[in-house]
Amino acid sequence: MRITMTGGPGTDDPGRVIFTNYVLSDLITKAYGFDITDMSGPDWLMNPGMNSPRFDITAKLPDGATAEQFQLMLRDMLASRFKMAVHREAKERPIFNLVAGKNGLKLKQSVAPSGADTQVFDLALDRIGAARIHAVGVSMETLAARLSKRGNLGRPVRDATGPVETLVIDELEKKPTEN
Questions:
Q1: Rounded to two decimals, what is the model's pTM?
Q2: Where are the domains of the chain?
Q3: How far apart are CA 45 and CA 175, in angstroms?
Q4: Which letter does DSSP use for residue 50 in this model?
Q5: pLDDT tens-digit series, residues 44-98
Q6: 149 by DSSP, 3-state: which?
């Protein structure tokens, strides 16, 4: 099952965006910039499976639309078509924090090859859940965010302590209204 997003601000086709086979939770993460582990809402949304409703969306964007404007347009579409209502709140909940060990950091600051402006991040998980990470030119904030999204840890990873900002979905309909 192929899930794609093409076009939009910063691409070769900035005036049009096409979502193919998208589940609602993925659209919400695009619109609000929250990972699903940082959201709370109805069970059917938070635990999407193979039988979750999927949507194909094609939208025309105004000339020169920025990524931030695109996010606002997605939010408006979710509110008008899916009757979505949300609020943000800080919640105390289990998270993983990246911290220095008692003997200090064992990481080395990476130096990108001259003239290179790239980041490398590879995460390999074996059958028993042990992970091996190769990261070059990646900040601790980025490392935490990528572990959160790709590490299958079941909770977010942060490079700081304290309450976690959460997007709370107060209302949401499974089926959109017609165009």
A1: 0.65
A2: 4-92, 96-158
A3: 12
A4: T
A5: 888 877 777 889 999 999 999 999 999 999 999 999 999 999 999 987 777 666 6
A6: helix
